[in-house]
Amino acid sequence: xxxxxxxxxxxxxxxxxxxxxxxxxxxxxxxxxxxxxxxxxxxxxxxxxxxxxxxxxxxxxxxxxxxxxxxxxxxxxxxxxxxxxxxxxxxxxxxxxxxxxxxxxxxxxxxxxxxxxxxxxxxxxxxxxxxxxxxxxxxxxxxxxxxxxxxxxxxxxxxxxxxxxxxxxxxxxx
Length: 174
Known about the structure:
Blueprint lengths: L1 H23 L6 E5 L2 E8 L4 E5 L6 H6 L3 H5 L4 E5 L19 H12 L5 E6 L1 H12 L4 E7 L15 H9 L1
Parallel strand pairs: 3-4, 3-5, 5-6
Antiparallel strand pairs: 1-2, 2-4
């Protein structure tokens, strides 16, 4: 049991330091743009059709995409574009809840505009999956395809402030 405990602690510390070091280290590839008054950090690599990678909650480009080898594999055939979602990584962290919500998928549109890209593949994991779905449903003309991974499900029968998630997805695909 002590040996198992030590392995768990070692894996936890390793993960912590990997995320911590990739979060604070300066990188020559870091770029920034202004998204309606919020400074958003992004990176690009490779050439080909553009794919935007949107990380999960509490993550950043490096921890969600580079540390797992996704960035490197995709950049062999695609123009990979990653952003630190507002409130994460090296992007600004607004304090007002009003600065989040639909503004987060608008940041993706603003990034595409900044890079002069009309349409892109969009891939999001966890929170990034929710952002990717919102982007797909709100800006379908800007989305070549969408990959949604690890995104939690909201009960399709619950309609608090509008249509259910299921109805929005179905309407968006029609």
